[in-house]
Structures are given as structure tokens and as C-alpha cells.
Amino acid sequence: MTLSFVKIVMAVALAGLVALLVAVLTDNTFVAVGVIALAVVGILLLLRDWRGDRPVPAAVEGDDAELPEPEPADAAMSAEMFAPDISTDAGGPSSDARAD
After folding, report:
1. What's the number of domains the chain is made of?
2. Residue among 34, 4, 40, 41 nearest 18 (CA)
3. Contact 13, 42 (CB under 8 A)
4. Is residue 46, in this structure, part of any structural domain at all?
5. Is residue 32 within 8 Å of 23, Cβ to Cβ?
6. Inter-residue contact 39 to 13 (CB < 8 Å)
7. Furthest-apart CA atoms within the chain: distance in Å
């Protein structure tokens, strides 16, 4: 963030705070709309800063880019080796898996 951007953000925040206090103390609808407008400006500034800070992904060049090979699953493991923690069977695991 540059110093001028910080000054702009601080000015918008201070103006919003003052406008909020004035809107609450005076019950003025137009000032309340101004508070909402300043909040929208603050959100837009936040989004602008957030988008500027995101890292730019490196360009991937067609066939030259090599992706890592996925590791094969262990063949010794199967679905039959696992049991659910919760069962509706009377003889199955209890509904509280920590009690087993």
C-alpha cells in the first residue's frame, strides 16, 4: 500500500465516522444515506486493495508444463475394511462413537 492510498482510506473512514455521528445525533435521513455511500466507497477501496495484493499466477506453457503424477491408491485397502461410526442396527456400533 502506498502512503497516498492510506491517506485516502483514512479520510473516507474519518468522514464516515463523523457522518455516522451526525446522522445518529440529528436523525437526518440524508446524512444517513451519506453514511451508506461512504461505507460503499470504503468497501470498494477494500476490494481494490485486495485485488491488487493477489499474486499473479505463473503462466503455464502448453505441453512444456509437467504436472505431478497422481499417486496410486493402496491396493490392500478396500471399503469392506471400514465400518460406519453410527448404525441403526441393534448389534452395530453405538450412536456415540467415542463410547466404543
Report:
1. 1
2. 34
3. yes
4. yes
5. yes
6. no
7. 74
68, part of any domain: no
Model confidence pTM above 0.90: no
The owner of cell 455521528 is 21
Q: Nine-digit cell at 48?
A: 481494490
Residue 45 included in any domain = yes
Q: What is the pLDDT along the chain (100 residues), one digit of tens a residue?
A: 677 888 888 899 999 999 999 999 999 999 999 999 999 998 998 888 888 777 766 655 555 567 778 788 777 777 777 766 666 666 665 556 555 5
Taking the C-alpha atoms of residue 19 and residue 41, their distance in angstroms, rounded to an integer, is: 14
Contact 28/22 with Cβ under 8 angstroms? yes
